[in-house]
Amino acid sequence: MTAPIxxxxxxxxxxMREPVPYTPLWLMRQAGRYLPEYNExxxxxxxxxxxxxxxxxxxxxxxxxxxRFDLDAAILFSDILTIPHAMGLGLDFVAGExxxxxxxxxxxxxxxxxxxPDLSKLQYVFDAVSLIRKExxxxxxxIGFAGSPWTVGCYMVEGQGSTxxxxxxxxxxxxxxxxxxxxxxxxxxxxxxxxxxxxxGAQAVMIFDSWGGVLADGLFQEFSLSYTRRVLDGLxxxxxxxxxxxxxxxxxxxxxxxxxxxxxxDAVGLDWTANLGQVRQRVGDSVALQGNLxxxxxxxxxxxxxxxxxxxxxxxxxxxxxGHVFNFGHGISRFTPPEAVTVLVDEVHTYSRxxxxx
Length: 358
Ligand code: CP3
Description:
globular
């Protein structure tokens, strides 16, 4: 079966530093609780996991933000914690409290028993990818994703979100061998998982290293970046006759930008603390940059949203060969008024045209 022609490939072209007419955008967590229609589908599904594990529901919520807004990419509706769930750690989303594992990894015995999961346990994800591609019908490209081995490892050891990362850092400083074993297994699992997403139809992939920035210099390279690099090394490079671009997002990672840019990715995602123009000077045109509006700017009203969007575009500077994908510096807040997103999309598309020489 041949895939329909991609009608809007500006996102993919910008990632590959090819000329584009304007700055493409999509938003981290664009399908989520700020949309009433998402909450409605989630209520019908019964729970977050039931939503993510059913391909019709997953497809429905993936497409919801595209029906409302003129976004340049879709992102698979799923979560970075599907892999540890498939490993048997028992994921649950407690209302209002975020993810929680029934069996976090705490002892040597827990770690010894950990294995790469059978990919068939994640078949629901690949089925969702295929269905979304079919329903998108070439409208915009579909992004697949996974967490970095380190970031997923944080949840596996902590058992939930954390503010100080005490459990995983205790393991890191006292039994680094155990942590390396977890990261090794996560690396292999993530690689197989992302390649299966690509084979099912993901046209770009993103690795979320949301907690890489909590590591000390030196330890970031050893416990996070080296494993992310190994995932990148093993990824399928081309599918359906086209390069599958890779984006790496390390929250708090701007200080390591040169090293992240050299990891084998095509684009680096940045949080809002970085200045895109300065980062661009440091990495040249070796990678594209994705970001980096503070998601809280969405609460400042229309004039502030337009001003801050222009600031990000101006910071990046003049564009000859793509290289910028507009996004937030982290996920959209669940309290964001949807109308604010309409304003943002309009400003990014309209204002950025004047900066492009294509
Ligand atoms: O971007 C998208 O629209 C695609 C879907 C997506 C989700 N999670 C859906 C989701 C993506 C890309 C993720 C990634 C993810 N999940 C990350 C990395 C990105 C980041 O934000 O740093 C992390 C750390 C997780 C783990 C996770 N999942 C947390 C901490 C939570 C609870 C906190 C929260 O924001 O609610 C989730 C749940 C989750 N994943 C929700 C969504 C839409 C909300 C759950 C709900 O509907 O109750």
